[in-house]
User: Which sequence fits this backbone?
C-alpha cells in the first residue's frame, strides 16, 4: 500500500500537480493492533491510574502494540505527498 501510494504521488508530480516550492509537515499517527499481530512493534508507555483507597494516583506502565503511519503533507493544500508505515516505537524525526 505504501509503495502504491508513493508511486501515485510521483505520477502526479511528473504531471505538474505540485508546481513551485512546497511547504511540508510530517504527521505520525499510531495504529494500535493486538499483541499477536505478526511483525508489529511494541511501545512502552505510562499512565496515571486511581487506586481505590488512596488519594494520589499511581503510575502504571503498559505496552502498546502496532504500527505508526508517517505522512508527509503539503501544508497549503493539505495533500499527502508521501507515506511510510513503521513499527509503533519508531521515532518520527531524522
Assistant:
Amino acid at each position: 500500500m505504501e509503495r502504491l501510494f508513493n508511486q501515485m504521488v510521483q505520477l502526479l508530480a511528473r504531471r505538474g500537480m505540485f508546481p513551485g516550492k512546497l511547504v511540508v509537515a510530517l504527521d505520525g499517527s499510531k495504529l494500535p493492533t493486538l499483541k499477536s499481530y505478526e511483525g508489529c512493534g511494541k511501545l512502552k508507555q505510562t499512565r496515571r491510574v486511581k487506586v481505590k483507597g488512596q488519594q494520589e494516583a499511581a503510575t502504571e506502565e503498559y505496552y502498546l502494540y502496532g504500527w505508526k503511519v508517517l505522512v508527509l503533507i503539503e501544508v497549503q493544500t493539505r495533500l499527502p505527498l508521501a507515506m511510510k508505515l513503521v513499527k509503533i516505537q519508531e521515532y518520527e524525526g531524522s
The CA atoms of residues 19 and 41 lie 37 Å apart. The chain has a mean pLDDT of 90.
